[in-house]
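Milestone M4 deliverable, item 7.
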Amino acid sequence: MKAALLRRIFYRRLRAEGGTTVLMAATVVLPIIFFLFSVSLDATRYMAENQQSQKVLDEIAAYAYRFLPFESQARNAAQSYLARYSRLAENTTVTVDSDTVSLLYQGLSPLSFPRFFGFEAGIPISAYSKARGTPFDALIVLDSGSSVGPALSSSAAWGDLSAWPPATFFANEFVLSDAGIPIDPRVLTQQCFNPTFSALKLGAARVFEYLAHSRSNAVGIMVAPGSSSAIDVLRPVVSPRQWPLGAGEASLSPYVGLHNRNALCAAAAEREQVADGYRFPNANPQLEDEGGSPNQPVDLALPSIEQASWELNPEMLPYVRARQALWSQARRENSMMDSSEVLQAVRASLIGAHFEGDRGGLSNEAFKSAYVFSADVPQALGARFPDAAVVAALAAQFEAIRSDIVESQRDLFLKIDYVLFRHPGVEEADFESRVQQLAEFFEEQQKIEGQYTENFQISLAYADSPESFTRKVLPTIALSRRTAVLSR
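Output delivered:
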């Protein structure tokens, strides 16, 4: 009897303690378990959001970089891409300059547990991505030989009269004669501006502006033939950081011919009243305009004291833009661009030179590129391609370049773009055949030890009209090997 009573008391106590245990589990243990579960979910969500944020920012940076150096386009591209992700768009800062695209996200990953108590809380989360590209060491060469315009003795100017009239300067202010016979002012104008020469000049200027807008690029300009030598150097292959303070963007070659010279072309560009295409081209509107100085002289060319000649204004030299230096070039009468000399200059300026400067850790990764804007197939030693002497001279230069690449252990990358614009003076029935042979020759010369490689490329860009030149050639030649490098 007594034993049964003790058992009943024991079971009652056990039931009471069980209820206490359940109550304790409901009030203490379960919240702890729920809290730990919430923390686990929040941690998982935090890691997923962090990884996704970084991945998206990397994609946006690499995508927007492709639009540089057009900063506004790159910024718009980044923001448009970012708008797809509302969580990121509200808390991401986009920074764009001529070299880089940077994105910084700073937000909160929300916590679940505080919400049950009416509080909003979160863990700070951030992601950063920066894209910059492989820097360029580039050389731009402009053909100024006799093939870029009609001969002064010619009676037939190039192009339609309405599109290419005589310049105001040559028609009214500076009339020239040869042996007492007045030179046609329209032909004289075309020693500076014509369908071919103007397209080549503008193409060279636009490629320079495109490449030089990036502070990490080193870009040079040469004109061949030069004033008194094979080549005039308007700007060596240097970056903006290396260019002397107080100097113009490029120098002015002092070419003076018997009847034409650079100062006359500059004067014609400045004084033109009718043809907009003769005036100095404006800066590319898609790039940041460099502006001007309030102390900048008005004229690049000035009449001499006796009013019988014209000369370049020395006070203008610190303010000269590259496009003005190129636009002022005059056709060299009875002189042709020597392509062998040009290749020597390419090799010396791009392969033999070493750039020192801040390139964001990519100093040794610079891509070498040369752009040769020509009005004819290559020439050398007084002959034209495919003459055997020309082929041999060019092949020797290409062999030297290939040897340089092999000796560099294939760390050297060089691309040469030969931009050929057929001029109206070409009447040869076999010209198209010459162009085809040139393309085949270039293709064979770029092989290193019998193999095609990325280290050396030669491209022939051929245009037969200003429209095709602008539409097909220019948008592609400056986009070679634009590789984005991401940093976090």
